[in-house]
């Protein structure tokens, strides 16, 4: 599986990249059919006027391409590692649902 990681308004460190690869390798180890995955990490620099702090300004987005399907998820948090964790949980639920739907609609061999 090919994982592409991009950073927008932030530098993707080796620790962040390792965290992403570990989480998504665990998630997709039971799925051989994952073609590619793109992860985009963004830091929004807008400041909340009341608290003088950026609220949920770390955004993580991912697209997973499967044969015949494409899954997308987005998560935001105050910390990049938290947003990556939320993103992984969302994609895990989508992959589980996709796998369940495949089992339901799988044609029976006669």
From TrEMBL:
Gene3D superfamilies: Ribosome hibernation promotion factor-like. One of its GO terms (cellular component) is cytosolic small ribosomal subunit. One of its GO terms (biological process) is negative regulation of translational elongation. GO terms for molecular function: ribosomal small subunit binding. InterPro entries: HPF/YfiA_ribosome-assoc, RHF-like, RHF/RaiA. Keywords: Translation regulation. SUPFAM superfamilies: Ribosome binding protein Y (YfiA homologue). Pfam families: Ribosomal_S30AE. NCBIfam families: yfiA. Belongs to the HPF/YfiA ribosome-associated protein family. Short HPF subfamily. Associates exclusively with 100S ribosomes, which are dimers of 70S ribosomes. This is Ribosome hibernation promoting factor. It comes from Acinetobacter bouvetii DSM 14964 = CIP 107468. The lineage of its organism: Bacteria, Pseudomonadati, Pseudomonadota, Gammaproteobacteria, Moraxellales.
